[in-house]
Amino acid sequence: MSRSMAKPAGGYHHGNLQAALEDAALDLLETTSAAKISLREVARRAGVSHNAPYHHFGDRAALLRALGVRGMAALLSAQEEAVAAATGPVERVRALGLAYVRYAAAHPQAFALVFDPDYCAAGTPSAEMAPLITRNEDLLAAEVAALVREPGYEGRDVMALSAALWSTVHGMAQLVTLEHLPVEAAEPALDALVR
Amino acid sequence: MSRSMAKPAGGYHHGNLQAALEDAALDLLETTSAAKISLREVARRAGVSHNAPYHHFGDRAALLRALGVRGMAALLSAQEEAVAAATGPVERVRALGLAYVRYAAAHPQAFALVFDPDYCAAGTPSAEMAPLITRNEDLLAAEVAALVREPGYEGRDVMALSAALWSTVHGMAQLVTLEHLPVEAAEPALDALVR
DNA sequence: TCCAGTTTCTTGTCACTGTCCAGATTGGAA
DNA sequence: TTCCAATCTGGACAGTGACAAGAAACTGGA
Fold first, then answer.
1. Using one digit for the tens of pLDDT, what is the confidence trace for A42-85?
2. For position A37, which CATH number holds?
3. Chain B residues touching residue A100 (CB < 8 angstroms)
4. Are B79 and B137 contained in the same domain?
């Protein structure tokens, strides 16, 4: 349920309300889209008054931005673990993409929040979000760079290929969460491109 | 501004309020995300009371669903026109994808609404949306089928390739609207895959 | 120990929203 | 004309995000 310590004492002060609020909101995000999450419901779940959140988050968007950062971090580490477990350049790129799609399928609301321009604008990412984004881009670029040194992939433009791969994987993740594509179709479709 | 006839007379009855409401909402959608569009603001723009919309749309979601149908129709015809203007299987697939991305870049909020699970759920599409979706899938499948008859593309699985292409194009559209990718990067990235 | 000062939380309030209700207005059919 | 159904209005209610003022609890220094 809660990812960190809950209310420790019954006193006036909560102890770790910031984390408790994020946890409560993350629980809601498992079943509800970010647009439908209300600050007051989150406060209720954390057992505090409707205004307590404003001392830890400037407004509703700030809370959701914090959740977005958590989601992006989870998405990134899912990819890193998958890449670390795979062997060979082709297999590593494949694993990276599948991890991306599978994270989206497992946490559709969190995934949607990470890429929701209303809260996590890519044009002006938050100070916590920006390094995660570049880390993700670097991870992909490094794997693609290794790929184009393989026989059969030589001479490809790393930038263009990275962009194309990210697009494919991201679109696949999106279409899977939208139930436009079944999850099982992701793997063969990805293989159809990577070959 | 308004896409169809506006309020015709000053009388009690509006004349064509349904269309006027959709037009007003579409204007708002050019600059505002669907989540931030309020029924009352739309009614205000159409010059009617806050409750008039309820006689033409059951609730707020119904209005946005109608906008989603309009957006999907526009996205579809943009692709059809692009395909009709192109010659040769490879070029036609390329044109289809570029039209998709360019529509998203030109109307990011409308594009987002079309694929917003809160309003236009793909799992259970509305009666007006469903035929548009299948028409789009058929269009893509037909072009891919023509493509795999070309030398250099023989023997590919049409289903898997269609899914992969749609994913790529959709993800590219998404990343462009999110400003994660510049629009100019779309064309070379697409070419890097289609070759 | 006591006691300011600061942070955290609560209660009260406001404007705005979606939706329901009852009633007024209108256009068309009998 | 008269009646009816469709359309639109105003009022009401609960829920929401946000602001303001005050209570409670933790903090450090005397």
1. 999 999 999 999 999 999 999 999 999 999 999 999 999 999 99
2. 1.10.10
3. none
4. yes
Structure-token match 């880390």, residue found: A135
Q: Is the CB of A55 under 7 A from strand C?
A: yes
Contacting residues 21-50/A vs strand C (CB within 7 A)? 48-50
Q: Is residue A63 part of a domain?
A: no
User: B25, B3 in Cβ contact below 8 A?
Assistant: no
**Contact status of B112 with chain A (Cβ, < 8 Å):** yes
User: Do A125 and A159 have their domain in common?
Assistant: yes
Q: What average pLDDT does this structure show over B181-187?
A: 90
Q: Residue B145's pLDDT band (boundaries 50, 70, 90)?
A: very high
What pLDDT does B14 receive? 74
Task: State mean pLDDT over B47-66.
Answer: 97
Gap from A60 CA to D15 C1', Å: 15
**What CATH number is associated with residue B132?**
1.10.357.10
Strand (E) or helix (H) holding A42: helix A39-46
Whether the pLDDT of residue B7 is over 50: the answer is no
CA dihedral B66, B69, B74, B76 (to 10 degrees): 180
Provide the chain B residues 15-34 that lie in CB contact (below 8 A) with chain A.
33
- Mapped onto helix, strand or coil, the DSSP state of residue A31 is helix
Q: Are residues B50 and B96 in the same domain?
A: no
Domain count, chain B: 2
Q: Which of B121, B174, B189 sits opposite A160 (nearest CB)?
A: B189
**A36–B contact, CB cutoff 8 A:** yes
Q: What is the pLDDT of residues A127-168, one digit of tens each?
A: 999 999 999 999 999 999 999 999 988 888 999 999 999 999
Q: Which amino acid, A33? A: S
Domain end marker among A13, A38, A58? A58
Is B54 in the same domain as B69? no
**Whether residues B143 and B119 fall in one domain:** yes
Residue span of the structural domain in which B179 resides: 64-194
CA–C1' A123–C7 (A): 34
In a domain, A103, yes or no: yes
Residues A153-168 as b or e (16 or more Cβ within 10 Å = b): beebebebbbbbbbbb
